[in-house]
Amino acid sequence: MIPGFLVYFLVGSLLIDVHGVPVEVVVDNPANLVCKEENESNEQVLWYKTKPEKLLSTSLNVLGPYKNRMHVKSPYPGEWVLVIKRVEVTDAGGYICKVSGSVMAEIDLVVQTPPTIHQTNDMTFNEGDTGIVWCNATGFPTPNIRWYSKPPHQEDGIGHYTGAEGNKLVLHNITRYYDNIYGCEATNAAGNVFAETRIHVNFGPEVDILGENVTAVIGEEVTLHCVIAAYPMDGVGEWAFQNRSEPIEYSWKYNVVPDPELKTDFNTLIVSLTIRFGALGNQDYGQYVCRTKNFSRGYSDKVVVIQSN
Ligand SMILES: *[C@@H]1O[C@H](CO)[C@@H](O)[C@H](O)[C@H]1NC(C)=O
Ligand SMILES: *[C@@H]1O[C@H](CO)[C@@H](O)[C@H](O)[C@H]1NC(C)=O
Ligand SMILES: *[C@@H]1O[C@H](CO)[C@@H](O)[C@H](O)[C@H]1NC(C)=O
Ligand SMILES: *[C@@H]1O[C@H](CO)[C@@H](O)[C@H](O)[C@H]1NC(C)=O
Ligand SMILES: *[C@@H]1O[C@H](CO)[C@@H](O)[C@H](O)[C@H]1NC(C)=O
Ligand SMILES: *[C@@H]1O[C@H](CO)[C@@H](O)[C@H](O)[C@H]1NC(C)=O
């Protein structure tokens, strides 16, 4: 077994072509690059950036173009520290310090950047599809990505870990129950960030009656509940007596209440019909049809019967 830190070091070396001592700094933070003279001489200490080689400083003097961002300090005799006040991504690379032509220090500055996720919008699939959700993140080192999921009505928390990792979440054989909020968390040594995507799945409309056929006496108040499940929820639900073309309207006799509360989070619309106390007459026994109207994906209905004893 190769110890983990060694693997990290070897892989890191291959990736960033390290010759010198690696110094890792998170972008926008200060970097201190240390040069120790073997012998305290009166010679000038020169800092260079490599590839291409550019002179940055001589002893305590930083050259013009770098003056605002860098300075050199000598806290101890023979020690010369090049300080970059706020490291930029383009500062990454090799630095060398020379005295009388001899290299005293060779440093590879590694600039880490925290992850950024390129936000993906809500996505819609059909049942049976295989769906791919992306979480493309930039940052250095390359961020690790983990996927979480939670139901649409859950506002707090990141949900439960799905076990999936990487920038691609593949959903096989999608069903309506895949309508969830999928969260991805991108993490690297410089930080972490989280983003969410809602998945919608086209289905329905499907109509269901809550409860059984009703037996009622004249004048009794009766309430019928109808549940419409669909995505998209782009139509309405209505009740019709004996499936007449004219739907039942709100009146002294009927109370019709569409309840959209569960629409967004549960793709469900409940439409309740109440025949008010005292209003049920002989002519009102029969079939009540709950039906959909104007849904882009089709039509559905169900019947419930109000019968006398
Ligand atoms: C430093 O001093 C030692 C002993 O005087 C000498 O051997 C060595 O070459 C010197 N090193 C440099 C880089 O001048
Ligand atoms: C994410 O990156 C992959 C390549 O790794 C690319 O195919 C895909 O289109 C990207 N997705 C988005 C939403 O940017
Ligand atoms: C996909 O779902 C259908 C219907 O539930 C099922 O018959 C089929 O075996 C599933 N296929 C896979 C690959 O899971
Ligand atoms: C309601 O009554 C109708 C007609 O009598 C019948 O066809 C249907 O099966 C009944 N439904 C239930 C849920 O009992
Ligand atoms: C109700 O009427 C619609 C439109 O005429 C028809 O498509 C549907 O099958 C009818 N439903 C019932 C339960 O009679
Ligand atoms: C249903 O659609 C028709 C024609 O497209 C339109 O005139 C009507 O206003 C719609 N009804 C509802 C309740 O949205």
TrEMBL record:
Keyword Lipid metabolism annotated: no
UniProt-listed SMART domains: IG, IGc2
Keyword line: Immunoglobulin domain, Signal
Organism in which the protein naturally occurs: Sinanodonta woodiana
Signal sequence coordinates: 1-20
Residue span, Ig-like domain: 3-108, 115-200, 205-306
Protein name (Swiss-Prot/TrEMBL): Ig-like domain-containing protein
PROSITE patterns listed in its UniProt record: IG_LIKE
Pfam families: ig (PF00047), Ig_3 (PF13927)
